[in-house]
Fold:
Amino acid sequence: MSNRVTVTLTVNGSEHEIEVEPRRLLVHALRDDLGLTGTHVGCDTSSCGACTVHLDGLAVKSCTILAAQAEGAQITTIEGLGGEHSLHPLQEAFWNEHGLQCGYCTPGMIMAAAALLEENPHPSEAEVRRALDGNLCRCTGYHNIVRAVQSAAQAQAPVAS
Amino acid sequence: MITAEFEYERPGSVAEAVGALAAADGDAKLLAGGHSLIPLMKLRLAAPGRLIDISRVPGLSAIERDGERWRIGALCTHTQLSRAGVGLLSEVAATIADPQVRNRGTIGGSLAHGDPASDLPAALLALEGSIVAQGPGGERTIPAADFFSDYLETALGPAEMIREVLVPAADGYGFGYQKFNRRAEDWALVAVAAAIRVQDGTCADVRIALTNMGPTPLRAGAAEAALRGAPASAEAIRAAAGQAAEGTDPPADLDADAAYKRHLAAVLCERALRAAAGIA
Ligand SMILES: Cc1cc2nc3c(=O)[nH]c(=O)nc-3n(C[C@H](O)[C@H](O)[C@H](O)COP(=O)(O)OP(=O)(O)OC[C@H]3O[C@@H](n4cnc5c(N)ncnc54)[C@H](O)[C@@H]3O)c2cc1C
Ligand code: FES
Ligand code: FES
Structure:
């Protein structure tokens, strides 16, 4: 038995077929097989959330999923959320509100925040903090991140104040 | 970090998964959400020769009310369970780790892993739920009280798989789960699950179970007995909660010594009982 599996993934709208060892982690498939290096590896022990992507619409830690487990899935990475010339409201808000310093945690933070806003377009500060429980930042102290998420929420779906 | 090599297969049914487990003769592991197993494999603390990925087996993700009990499929994720209105279990599921982990981790994996720091085992023990396991010889139902046998060990046989979890609906009970940890997404240092049925101002039934106070989840029998039949008052609850750690011998770890864990058990037990009795 040849120890490789063929995996079909739809990433940011385009379909890819890759042949990998079963032990290939989704994060490495994204970064090394598909060249999408926006998804980072921070801790590699399932704690920091830097590797967060959306798998069939849910935020997940791609360092703790085998590529083979994602067979047939729809995946969105930070590259699929918005690009340099078409920033997503969250990307724009992280920029404006200084929601990043070194930027290492940022793709994962934004993907976790995007999943929150899908479900809850107007989260309270406490709800934002709780939704980002699984994302660690070594630089910002989190306040500006929370502010950025709330400001993106307002930009995406304004509520009269 | 990269796991050791393994063969991978994805069976289409419980029978196929059980067959594959039996055929592998101890060198295979079931893979559900992977959020306990993959971290262990990346650290090379586990290196099974074969992974049997059950995460796509159909029919194992439903949560249904069936008369006086809930039937929860083994592949229900913590996120699903936390939103399903299954009383204590839903409340407990919402405290597990963080949203990303809850989106992948399953109730079957959480119970089969047998980690005394996991949250769902104590809740299931308190409610006297049970686990339906299927093996090569058929199906059996294992009460939670007989399921957790030691640290990371359960009553599951080598080729048995959890199919579903049965939980008494416990209508008429109030619930509380109090968990103490040091970091936002972390495991419980100690946690306490409580359920009380109050009748005419008296605690007609009391259930208390402890997370991470020993090698398995434990019932706090002395505290239960002290409160059963007593008034549902803050004073009676405080007195009973003082006995929460009786008979336990929690191992010291990096975060806490045994005395501190026993202290935590009493404090958390009081809070959980107050919540269960509806005392602010
Ligand atoms: C960062 C982090 C923090 C966490 N914090 C907590 C926490 O606070 N509280 C908590 O309770 N948990 C916590 N967890 C664990 C999480 O809840 C796991 O998802 C869960 O314990 C295992 O479920 P799984 O589906 O991922 O199982 P897997 O990792 O797939 O499997 C775990 C074990 O169970 C076996 N198994 C899986 N399914 C079955 C089945 N149906 N029948 C028989 N055997 C089976 C596997 O072979 C394996 O041995 C945390 C995990 C991480 C990564
Ligand atoms: S790299 Fe995946 S959680 Fe840290
Ligand atoms: S900006 Fe540096 S880790 Fe968050």
